[in-house]
Amino acid sequence: MPIPKENQSGVAFSNELVKEFKEHNIYVLGTPMYNWSIPSGLKSYIDQLMRINETWKFRSGKPDGDYVGILENKKMFILSSRGDTGYGENEKNEHMNFQTTYLKFVFGIMGIKDVSIISLDNEEFGGEIFENSKKEIYQRIGQM
Hints:
Elements: H1 9-22, E1 26-32, H2 40-49, E2 56-58, E3 67-69, E4 75-81, H3 100-109, E5 114-120, H4 127-143
Parallel strand pairs: 1-4, 4-5
Antiparallel strand pairs: 2-3
């Protein structure tokens, strides 16, 4: 029994997004931290990309929890912004970072392992605290 055409419209849109995504080798993703995670629009976009046998697969070919990314030799830069500070590796709020940890995880499942994260912190406070955060970024970029 064929699948009704109206059920395929969402898949057609997803197919376009996946095709476009696969055509590139370097990705630059900019996102703010919203409630310790990512905005819903970005989550929806990722859901369109996260397609079995398109961007990831099961190693055995059967559901077994052993995921293999199909996108290889890709590089991603994640440019994040956060109102506060302390969400990086080994920092006091690392356990609350569902933004960059999620992004690294989900794109890693797709096979993108080469990920650099640049986070602009303390936007909420402005002034000298924010200016110091910007200086830290410039130093980090200079080391890349």
